[in-house]
Amino acid sequence: MEKFKNILMSPLEAFREKLENNEKVRRAFHLCFEIIAAFLLGALVSVCLFQSVTMQESSMEPTLAVGQKFFVNRLGYRISEPKRGDIVVYKTSASDDAALHIHRIIGLPGETVQIVGGRVLINGGNLKETGDYPSISNAGLAASPLTLESGEYFVLGDNRNNSEDSRYGDIGVINSKYIVGKLWFRMSPVTALGFL
């Protein structure tokens, strides 16, 4: 038994000694380890924290154009709440097959949203927005006051008259559990690369 152990250990010890004595081999192993670790960390970060999404509809023009690609920050809303003006990616149901939509948050939980005379009212007062958005021609469900419950958000597209958003029954108010994350970084086209 001892003889067999010596025969087995002898090549392993020789290999270990060569590694210790050969600086180039050690560096190569060290570099391979760093590359594998970086790849695994990058994969973990991209799967857990970020997701890529492509703008499929014209509902956010001219802010976002059809075909542009973005990273979605999936972690941000786990540590903070969505804010008015955030551009979010959401689903309309818990189904894995549910389509992803991209719109801007307008109404927050506990607020009453209504669209009157083409303008958005929050709790009866005019919504002050930084963008130059067109007057809304179809108030849809928001023609009457909509009071948002806890965890509910009212979203609109920036292309207000060509957007299927919370004004329509197919979308309605968005529950926070269906919000995938906040649109975070534009990755294409290269000329528009950058944080949003």
Written account of the structure:
The chain is an alpha+beta fold and about 200 residues long. The protein folds into two domains: about 1-50; about 50-195, Ribbon (Umud Fragment, subunit A). It is about 25% helix and about 25% strand. The protein is built from three helices and twelve strands, in the order ααββαββββββββββ. Strands 1, 2, 3, 4, 9, 10, 11 and 12 form an eight-stranded antiparallel sheet that branches. A four-stranded antiparallel sheet has the order 7-6-5-8, with no helix packed on it. β5 (about 110-115) and β6 (about 120) form a beta hairpin. The chain starts with a helix and ends with a strand.
Q: Report the total helices.
A: 3
Q: In the CATH scheme, what's the topology name of the largest domain?
A: Umud Fragment, subunit A
How many domain modules? 2
The largest sheet, given as strand count, sense and whether it forms a barrel, is: 8 strands, antiparallel
Would you summarize the structure shown here?
With 196 residues, the chain is α+β, with helices and mostly antiparallel strands.
Looking at this protein, list some descriptive labels.
196 residues; eight-stranded antiparallel sheet; alpha+beta; 2 domains; Umud Fragment, subunit A; four-stranded antiparallel sheet; 3 helices
Compile the SSE list and pairings.
Elements: H1 2-21, H2 23-48, E1 50-54, E2 69-73, H3 76-79, E3 87-90, E4 101-107, E5 112-116, E6 119-122, E7 125-126, E8 146-147, E9 152-156, E10 174-175, E11 179-188, E12 194-195
